[in-house]
Design goal:
- Strand 4, helix 10 and strand 5 form a beta-alpha-beta unit.
- The protein has 22 helices and 23 strands.
- Strands 5-4-3-6-9-11-10-12-15 form a nine-stranded mixed sheet, sandwiched between helices.
- Helix 3 runs antiparallel to helix 10 and helix 8 crosses helix 9.
- With 604 residues, the chain is of the alpha+beta class.
Length: 604
């Protein structure tokens, strides 16, 4: 698909009429074809014309763009002899330009800078991880590549180039179709304009929220990559995900059938509203190809919270459960700190596939690449290091080797799962009619309840009674004999007023069945335990709970299955504490250094 301009002007000829620069520039913008007008609108170019004109900078800005000293085109500039004097600017490099402008001139927007661009080194590693393992399976044909948080499109265009290189090695002819969706208007405009300039189909790049307005609901993709925003609220998307009352999920991407659930129940895949990053992964997984030999391969960047945030039965844990129990997760790679422009937090690449090779089935590989990097000579925002080619190769080889090393750990899927059990203990109450409690009762009692006081005093006097079950039986028997009927709330008032918890009292019986006695539980004593999936719940309970609480029991109705990946725990390295002698020596050295300073201060 192509674009055109019907205006008589070019950027260079605009400079021939400095006094009419504004009118002519507006004419130039209006002359672009319809498919380019959306890009102009998203860049808000027309909104800036008045500001630039008032400050007398519009002419100077256009002059900069046509300078012989820079080349913002995707094609190289050559001299008369055909020698390249200025290289063309790739889509990836245009992303760098945009990111640098955001970082340098919009420091107040640093919080959002990570949403715009993923560094080249991280993209290269992601490409290696999803393409190299299946490079021998690439056949001639068409492959669909998708990024559901595509930014300026760097991952898409780099993916296309990488696949083409792999195909050429085996003389295969492949056609790559690029699809993306982006919610930021400026980066969307960069991506779409790049597609137009290079003759690709810009209609495969859509503007809008992937979460609330999925533009590719009916498509499945061969390869998917993304670096979604971390820690960003998705509250604005909730109306599109839930029904009107926000009780049921109406978007089928985020509520799925899954083994182990009750009949008719679905697994809800919605994280807390303050962080929607995992929704982008769920969206990708809903678009995996099921009918091809390669299936779909995914590489996505997340921060640490995606590994462990969320309790069993919660949205984040359900997402991890869905992924791991479907055996889609191949590997997670821990990246060095300070890899991104706006944040120094820990980040991880997740690699997923619905066609795991046999030796990976039922397994997950964790790779600690946090120490594999090179320092930058000059910081770019908070980015002070990069993955060198040797580092990228090392991670790739470690991934392909799939072996246990100091930096590579291989686990069974079940190693990350656990059952969260609810442990209850019985409610124990002592009943006693004391003057203080009588006074408290009289302050809230009605006329009918006043008559109850006499029964209470006659039956129980002022002595403590540690068997509440007997107290309740005798009291309600006496009420019946006196033909007194109390409402449930009045009975509750009596019992609440004249009882107190007492660990030495008898357990309160809730009901008796043919086979057992069921006790009332004490919510204040309720606790939970996480039992590894590989361990029998009863064995764990007998070993870890009953020795400390012999009267405890498990409420199996509340048992939930959860998954978490404690990356730090698996790669923890113990560092011994410094010796007392070392600490003492340091303190003495500091005292010696500061002694002269202290004397100088005092003398002054």
């Amino acid at each position: 698909m192509y674009f055109y301009n019907t205006s008589q002007f070019t950027f260079k000829t605009l400079l021939n009429f400095p006094s009419q620069i504004r009118a002519n520039f507006e004419n130039y913008l209006d002359g672009f074809s319809e498919n380019a007008q959306e890009i102009i609108a998203k860049f808000k170019l027309r909104n800036q014309i008045e500001t630039l004109t008032e400050s007398n900078r519009l002419y100077a800005l256009i002059e900069k763009f046509v300078s012989n000293h820079i080349n913002l085109s995707s094609e190289p500039v050559k001299n008369a002899e055909g020698k390249i004097i200025l290289q063309g600017l790739t889509n990836l490099e245009m992303g760098y330009v945009f990111e640098e402008l955001i970082r340098k001139f919009n420091e107040e927007n640093n919080e959002e800078a990570g949403e715009h661009f993923t560094p080249r080194d991280i993209i290269q590693l992601m490409l290696n991880l999803i393409f190299i393992p299946i490079e021998n399976q690439i056949q001639s044909g068409t492959y669909l590549v998708y990024d559901d948080a595509c930014g300026s499109g760097g991952m898409l265009t780099e993916s296309e180039a990488f696949i083409q290189q792999l195909a050429e090695k085996t003389a295969k002819k492949v056609k790559i179709e690029l699809y993306g969706q982006e919610v930021n208007p400026e980066t969307y405009a960069i991506c779409k304009s790049d597609m137009l300039i290079k003759g690709r189909d810009p209609e495969k790049i859509w503007f809008g929220s992937t979460i609330s307005h999925d533009k590719f609901a009916d498509l499945q993709f061969d390869f998917m990559l993304a670096n979604p925003p971390y820690g960003k609220s998705w509250t604005v998307d909730q109306d599109a995900v839930f029904d009107g009352k926000k009780k049921e999920v109406k978007d089928s991407r985020f509520a799925v059938e899954h083994p182990g659930l009750k009949p008719g129940e679905k697994l809800t895949l919605l994280p807390r509203s303050s962080d929607g990053q995992l929704l982008f992964l769920v969206n990708m997984l809903s678009k995996m190809k099921q009918s091809t030999a390669v299936g779909s391969r995914i590489a996505i960047v997340h921060n640490g919270s995606a590994l462990f945030t969320g309790d069993a039965g919660g949205g984040e844990s359900n997402i991890r459960r869905w992924i791991i129990e479907n055996d889609w997760l191949e590997s997670i790679i821990g990246l060095p700190l300070n890899m991104f422009y706006n944040t120094g937090i820990a980040t991880y690449i997740w690699v997923l596939s619905n066609r795991k090779p046999e030796h990976r089935q039922g397994k997950v590989q964790l790779i600690d690449a946090t120490e594999w990097y090179g320092k930058l000579r000059k910081n770019l925002g908070k980015k002070n290091c990069e993955l060198r080619l040797a580092d990228i190769q090392r991670v790739t080889e470690t991934f392909l080797a799939f072996e246990e090393t100091e930096q590579s750990k291989v686990f069974d899927n079940e190693d990350f799962g656990y059952h969260k059990i609810t442990v209850d203990r019985p409610l124990r109450l002592t009943f006693q009619v004391t003057p203080e409690r009588v006074e408290q009762f009289q302050s809230v009692a009605n006329a009918k309840l006043y008559a109850v006081l006499g029964i209470l005093k006659d039956l129980f006097s002022s002595e403590p009674h540690k068997d509440f079950n007997r107290v309740k039986q005798e009291f309600e028997k006496a009420l019946k004999a006196e033909s007194i009927k109390l409402a449930a709330k009045d009975l509750k008032l009596v019992y609440d007023t004249f009882t107190e918890k007492d660990e030495t009292a008898e357990p309160v019986i809730k009901k008796k069945t043919k086979d057992a006695v069921v006790y009332e539980s004490d919510s204040e004593l309720r606790d939970t335990e996480n039992v590894p999936l590989k361990e029998d719940i009863e064995d764990y309970f007998q070993r870890e709970v009953l020795p400390h609480a012999p009267d405890a029991w498990i409420d199996y109705e509340k048992t939930a299955r959860g998954y978490e990946i404690s990356f730090t725990k698996y790669f923890y390295k113990f560092k011994p504490l410094r010796s007392l002698e070392e600490i003492t020596a340091d303190i003495l050295a500091l005292e010696a250094q500061t002694e002269g300073v202290l004397k100088a201060i005092i003398s002054e």
